[in-house]
Write a sequence for this structure.
């Protein structure tokens, strides 16, 4: 039975902002296991947090004593100097303790925050590499990298806002309400509590309403970022077609949409802040009015009035950030959820449970009645069967779109076949681990993409840990050593984004050197010399023949002159093998291969 061409969960994952969004509680539940390993640091950080808040609440109490001591007429004039001095020292000590405990809390918990962010980022990175080629062909790099960046930042934000802002404020509010109710009358506590409830309710309602504008702004930001990255990655194409102004207009359209969304977000933020200030102002007036009445009645001292005012100011400062905190927490939860959804993308090509490693004894490769299509409605391969005997070279030729490069992708198991099977030494490649399968195969692809690093790094990528001498030997075998040493920085020359500082032929020779360094038992050459001139092609072709000796090799070629020595040549058309045989046998048949050979020979002439 033919499988669906695109796995729906994975297709949706290519645009993580789409689809179902889990609840905030579920997102937090996903985060907690990463913090659980640092639970003792969390406990110690909370102890320092409580200590900091106790010291902070003690400051207004000392302020009251200081004011009362100065307002009374002492019998001993020296008391005016002694009592305030002691209170001032205690006041300074409490302020120092507040800062000290706060810094200790952040120092203790920094390892937990950074450790959790590192673990999540690494897991997302590994998971993205485990997803299928289909996912990476459909994704938008700019938007996805921005989602990962925001998700990592959200881990820091959630932890810092909750542990450093929300939780401390709740502790301080509880302490202040208790003090006001016990030391004075319950009216102060009720005024404070009513103000807090009104403030929080207003903040939550307005922030929930304006979250849509914030989310739209982030989507427009990702869209603009994606367009910019896509345009810059295709710099040469933009220049070829003189489309700099066109690309600027497209980018400006995204920036204009981002500007409008940002203005909506800012205007609703102003509305939120104004309402918050109104609630705080009304509560402060009510508290001071009540306190002033009691001072006039003689039931409260001037120091009590100062203390109540100081308490309100201390509560007002963190509450002033509550709207921002709530909005940022909501946005951080949204960003974290997007990154978790990337982690939830299912693998289209998973390893079988308990799959063993591939054991390459001889290296015989077989395709047995293989059917495959990238989309269900457009099959690519139809009943393809052939064998590459151990140590032999089999070539595949044919027009573009015949399915030649698809054979290499299936052998690497970037996709699973729809029907039939592929075996290496009788082992179905779906029943062994992908890591061991890919260790056994080396490829020189038609389109060589290099890392933005040195030439030495890109060659050594074939076998990380190889010595410099081994890298040089591989470069010499690929006939690129002389070119490298002629460069001012030699092997330390940086090749640029995707290797754009090198020519097509130079990049292809680096790719050949990389595969030679890997030295696997099975080789795939996918138009391996297509970007080389005739002289270099002949030299490298001879080297490739030497390297492929006693190795199983699949050669995908357009130039027939490069495969005349193949053990068997397969001619593909429309996903089927229409001819097979040696070079001489195929010429004798006078079929498709013979026509292609005559055409290429006349073109060379």
């Amino acid at each position: 039975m033919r499988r669906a061409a695109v796995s729906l969960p994975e297709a949706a994952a290519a645009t993580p902002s789409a689809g179902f969004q889990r609840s905030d509680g579920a997102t937090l539940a996903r985060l907690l296991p990463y913090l659980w390993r640092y639970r003792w640091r969390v406990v110690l950080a909370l102890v320092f947090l409580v200590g900091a808040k106790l010291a902070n609440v003690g400051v207004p109490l000392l302020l009251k004593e200081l004011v009362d001591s100065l307002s009374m007429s002492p019998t001993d004039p020296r008391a005016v100097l002694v009592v305030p001095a002691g209170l001032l020292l205690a006041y300074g000590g409490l302020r120092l303790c507040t800062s000290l405990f706060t810094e200790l809390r952040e120092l203790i918990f920094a390892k937990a925050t950074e450790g959790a962010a590192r673990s999540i980022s690494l897991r997302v990175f590994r998971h993205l590499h485990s997803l299928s080629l289909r996912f990476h062909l459909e994704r938008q790099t700019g938007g996805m990298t921005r989602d990962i960046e925001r998700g990592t930042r959200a881990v820091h934000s959630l932890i810092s806002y909750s542990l450093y802002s929300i939780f401390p404020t709740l502790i301080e509010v509880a302490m202040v309400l208790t003090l006001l109710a016990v030391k004075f009358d319950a009216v102060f506590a009720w005024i404070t509590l009513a103000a807090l409830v009104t403030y929080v309710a207003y903040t939550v309602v307005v922030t929930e309403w304006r979250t849509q504008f914030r989310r739209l702004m982030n989507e427009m930001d990702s869209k603009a970022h994606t367009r910019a990255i896509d345009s810059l990655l295709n710099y040469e194409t933009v220049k070829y077609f003189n489309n700099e102004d066109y690309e600027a207009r497209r980018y400006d359209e995204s920036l204009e949409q981002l500007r409008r969304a940002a203005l909506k977000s800012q205007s609703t933020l102003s509305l939120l802040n104004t309402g918050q200030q109104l609630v705080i102002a009304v509560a402060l007036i009510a508290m001071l009015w009540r306190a002033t009445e009691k001072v006039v009645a003689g039931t409260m001292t001037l120091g009590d009035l100062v203390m109540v005012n100081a308490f309100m100011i201390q509560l007002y400062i963190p509450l002033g950030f509550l709207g921002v905190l709530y909005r940022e927490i909501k946005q951080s939860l949204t960003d974290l959820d997007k990154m978790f959804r990337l982690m939830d993308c299912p693998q289209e090509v998973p390893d079988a449970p308990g799959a063993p490693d591939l054991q390459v004894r001889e290296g015989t490769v077989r395709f047995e009645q293989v059917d495959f299509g990238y989309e269900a409605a457009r099959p690519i391969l139809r009943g393809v069967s052939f064998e590459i005997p151990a140590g032999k070279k089999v070539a595949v030729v044919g027009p573009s779109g015949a399915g030649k490069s698809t054979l290499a992708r299936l052998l690497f198991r970037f996709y699973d076949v729809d029907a039939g099977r592929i075996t290496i030494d009788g082992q179905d490649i779906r029943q062994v681990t992908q890591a061991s399968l890919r260790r056994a195969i080396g490829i020189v692809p038609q389109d060589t993409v290099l890392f933005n690093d040195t030439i030495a790094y890109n060659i050594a990528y074939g076998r990380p840990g190889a010595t410099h001498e081994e890298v040089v030997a591989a470069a010499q075998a690929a006939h690129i050593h002389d070119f490298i040493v002629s460069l001012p920085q030699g092997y330390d020359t940086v090749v640029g984004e995707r290797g754009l500082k090198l020519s097509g032929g130079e990049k292809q020779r680096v790719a050949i050197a990389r595969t030679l360094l890997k030295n696997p038992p099975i080789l795939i050459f996918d138009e391996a010399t297509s970007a080389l001139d005739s002289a270099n092609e002949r030299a490298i072709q001879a080297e490739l023949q030497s390297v492929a000796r006693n190795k199983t090799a699949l050669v995908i070629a357009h130039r027939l002159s490069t495969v005349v020595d193949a053990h068997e040549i397969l001619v593909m058309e429309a996903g089927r093998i229409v001819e097979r045989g040696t070079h001489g046998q195929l010429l004798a048949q006078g079929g498709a291969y013979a026509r292609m050979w005559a055409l290429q020979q006349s073109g060379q002439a």
Summary: The radius of gyration is 35 Å. The domain at 8-344 is CATH 1.20.1560.10 (ABC transporter transmembrane region fold).
